[in-house]
Amino acid sequence: MNKIRMQLMLCGGTGCDSTGSERVREALLQEIQKQDLAGEVEIVVTGCNGFCAVGPVMVVQPEGIFYQKIKPEDAAELVEEHFLKGRPLKRLFYKEPGSKDIIPKMDDIPFFSSQMFRTMRNKGLIDPEVIDEYIARDGYFAVAKALTEMTPDGIVDEMLASGLRGRGGAGFPAGMKWKFAKQAQGDVKYVLCNADEGDPGAFMDRSILESDPHAVLEGMIIAAKAINAHKGYIYCRSEYPLAVKRLDIAISQAKAYGLLGEDILGSGFDFDIEVYQGAGAFVCGEETALMRSIEGKRGMPRPRPPFPAHKGLWEKPTILNNVETLANVPQIILKGGEWYASVGTETSKGTKVFALSGDVNNIGLVEIPMGTSLRTLVYDIGGGVPKKRKFKAVQLGGPSGGCVPEDYLDTPIDYEAIAKVGAIMGSGGAIVMDNRTCMVDMARYFMDFIQDESCGKCTPCREGTKQMLTILENICKGKGRPGDIERLQELAHVVGRSSLCGLGQTASNPVLSTLRYFREEYEAHIEQKECPAKICPDLVHFEVVPDLCKRCGLCFKDCPSDAITWKKKEVAVIDKDKCIKCMSCYDRCKFDAIL
Amino acid sequence: MKTNTHPHHPDITGEMWTRMDEIIANGKGQPGSLITVLRECQEVVGYLPSELLSHISHGLVLPTSQVFGVATFYSFFSLTPKGRHIVRVCTGTACYVKGIKEAMGRIDTTFDLKEGETTEDRRFTLEGVRCLGACGLAPVMVVDKDIYGDVTSNKVINILEKYE
Q1: At the N or C end, where does chain A have fewer CB atoms within 10 A?
Q2: Architecture in CATH of B85-161
């Protein structure tokens, strides 16, 4: 019998899938068979590797060599050179954007080397559709421990000791939630997993579900044992079909192994999990709205108290935790709360996964210990801002969060410290913005989002966000009036204080944080009718500066609306009436001749 | 029985009714089944005409107001017909920062198609969706089931031309 000497961990996450990893897999398989290596080299399709920016990616084990941007055409050379002759293919190695250094091994790439993998410990190492691979990495050991050796109180104590706080955004201690639900009276209780990851720019939950679904199931079983629940639901967005598919597979495999369903591991404890698909409503990330949605109703929040720990789904005691929170649970049970709390700051323990995106070189998922500075996140791991542009701000916490400018980049990642600079930890979306981003337009964008997603139940949120959006739209169109800033502040205050749920209470954060740090941009829009970042179409006019124009004609070729006239060796001219302000020419000009 | 009589509708064939009657029967009496039933029926017909919603409300023995209320609350459900190809552009923050707005502008100038609309020939329906969670590829567009990354305003039309 042949012995597998090499494993090709090919990423099959949504990012790499869309850049063609399935075609790469087919091509590799064909070449491996052609070279008669089928018994020695094995392809494993893993969940999201995290480094989505350079996909499709593949890590060759046991060497740990990292290949990026693989195309099906590369398969023949890759198989022959590396897997047959043992000469890794330098052409497909990772190149550091700044220094242009070539780095062959994954562990040496700065993007990975500054990270600490706990929640994402299995990413890229197991096939998420094979339960045995999860079990081989200590999977379901925590369930065995919790079900056979621990009491519900013991589980809750371990969770409290870990200091784990809700990773969905609010940061409420998970152990406390469990404690309340455990104490609540009732013979029917529920464990819910919030996989309705709605914050734009956050995709860690999707990635965890796609790469390590069993970790979430395991966390839910342990939670069920702690509060004595026998039924659980995973509320997953319908926008995540791959996550739903892998969850379904994971649930049926766990049932077949007796790890889910009746009499789990012979302990006499029953627990079943069902996947419930959302139908596209951002507000359903709010806990009471999510429960309404599972009940088949309009997903509208209700006032609290009573809290879900006492009256949740179908009015029964319920705990609701986010995907990332639950994925941390098995290791806390296995290694102890103290182990978990050994990393982090005074009030924020453990690690946090960030989805780094926007104007940053290394886009992808990043897991770092709490207390790491934002600067490390953006520059050391993220590799800074591309195209030689300047960093302007990093947006944390999605539509409920805020922008953190350069001056505050040394803020440590910690629930309280981030709140102090006007943003929130949120679910972990970190969107980097360069100097080509208009902060007023950003505030308008988030307000548009919130206004659209407001469920309409309470007046301050429904009407207040609409008024704020109108003011912001006017400012962006050059119709801003003196006093608009003060009106925004007043509305923000009222909406924040009087809205029913978190959606409305935090809706003004993007406006307030941009006003705090970029007030001069608002003033430029209102007073000078100018958009300093040249983003708001109504305030921008494009012109060619004749002295700078090199007469190359690139702008002419790119213009979609025939607004540019150009002949060889002549300066281009933009017809302002025809110009649709798409910025194609502005982006294309290498000489900054278009202003 | 009332559930066995089907209202006439040009977009729904007899075979579709049979499949949907099964879906409705499965959901009947199950608390919380409404959203699932609506989703599955929409998969069969492509959208949810109001005659169908009334039929579902009879079948599940739920007030018509509740069925309409749920169908209009969630963005996943559509009460109007869709095009042959569903173009979903991500309007998440990362895609926004990276220029999806410009790409959508180009779609509008070429196909006279704005967010939420369907072209007259029912070739495309353009939907703006909240973050698809593929920010690494921003700006992102999904046509039917194909995901396209780095969809700048220059590339978007070439991609769409492939879909007839």
Answers
A1: N
A2: 3-Layer(aba) Sandwich (3.40)
| Residue type present at position A219 | G
Determine the CATH number of domain A6-109.
3.40.30.10
Q: B126 to chain A, minimum CA–CA distance in Å? A: 16
The answer to whether B100 and B93 are in contact (CB under 8 A) is no
Q: pLDDT tens digit string along A527-556? A: 999 999 888 888 888 888 888 888 888 888
List, in sequence order, every beta strand (DSSP E) within A20-77.
41-46, 58-61, 65-67
**Going by C-beta distance under 8 Å and a sequence separation of 6 or more, which residues neighbour residue A165?**
A171, A172, A173, A174, A348, A349, A415
Phi first, then psi, for residue A357 (nearest 5°) are -155, -175
Residue carrying structure tokens 């973050």: B131
How far is Cα A65 from Cα A53, in angstroms, rounded to an integer?
17
Where in chain B do CATH 3.40.30.10 domains reside? 85-161
Selected for mutation to probe chain B from A69, A203, A395 (highest B CB count within 10 Å) is A203
Classified as helix, coil or strand, B143 is: strand
CB A211 within 8 Å of CB A365: no
Length of chain A (residues): 595
What would the CATH number be for the domain defined by A131-341? 3.40.50.11540
Query: What part of A 524-563 touches B (C-beta under 8 Å)?
Result: 558, 560-561
